[in-house]
Amino acid sequence: MKFKKIFLISMLIAAALAACNNPGPIDVSNPIGFKQKSGLFSLQVPKSWTSAQDEVSTEAIASFADTTHRAELIGYVGLLDHQLSDAEGLQVAADLTGNLLNQPGDLKITNKYRQPDGAFIAVFTFSRAGAPRTGQAIFRGADLSLAGTLINGPVDGWADFQKSLQPFVDSFKVDKDFVQGTYFTPIDTDAYAVVVPVGWTQQKSKTNNEVEVKAPNGRLSIIGVQRVVTNTLDDTALANQAVSILKQSYSLDDTLSDTSKLADGRLRLGLDRADRHTVGFVEQKDGYFIGLFFDVPTQQLSAYQSFIDFVYSTFVTGKAK
User: Fold this and answer.
1) CA 86 to CA 92: how far, in whole Å?
2) What pTM value is reported for the model?
3) In DSSP terms, which residues pair with 197 in a beta bridge?
4) What three-state secondary structure class fits 303?
5) Cβ-contact 225, 209 below 8 angstroms
6) HEC secondary structure over 236-291
7) Quick one: how far is CA 250 from the chain centroid?
């Protein structure tokens, strides 16, 4: 998968910095706390380092540079809709490293690996204003976010300098409540309300108050449906209604593969076609057929489960009182 199709940053803060000929040590003293302006993440940084930050709909970065402009520390957090496999995560780490560094022409990823704790690591080299640099990026996927830090500095003495930056890297923390509150927005209709990611493409039907929300990479769709019904629907009729609506309105020629009754009274559906699987939650309430559907690649259903669980946890049905 192409990472840049998932995370697009409108303006990279990590712009090219002029190299400084100052041969003295890089100041990493006097740690102070920094909190990203939307509260998405926090970390400790050297007091003398300058900072800048930016954010778009589902991404945020903060960049810090020492006074001699020979070293950088970058914090990043972005929405993640599914758990990354080893190969996918390593490619993401490499692609994101290039994006955060503003794609240096001589950037080389010299090593990629996954730590025992699950973090994805990219080791790299590049140069700024003719001065060679090296660095390391570390990203973790958890709580609906991909987040981490990138550090870089002079090649000479890098091992010792990296150790001096490690406490700042270790201090990086993501606030999952702020991630959920910032990266998701509500959709309200007559019969239901649910949250969906900010900035994802929404296609709404004025006739039926239906909405389809698509992930930027095209792999996940969220569909919300409400239809007025006058007759009472049993579980079989609910399932048949779901199959009919998905086919007629969204061209999803699904075959019903399983049903189960949930503790909240809704009917959970599993629907299949080719290499896609649709998870549905349907019910009849206040004169409406109401459905919430997640369409994902069949082979990655388990990877999307945490995202599905969170969005479903916000699904409220029935007319507003």
Assistant:
1) 10
2) 0.90
3) 184
4) helix
5) no
6) HHHHHHHHHHHHHHHCCCCEEEEEEECCCCCEEEEEEECCEEEEEEEEEECCEEEE
7) 25
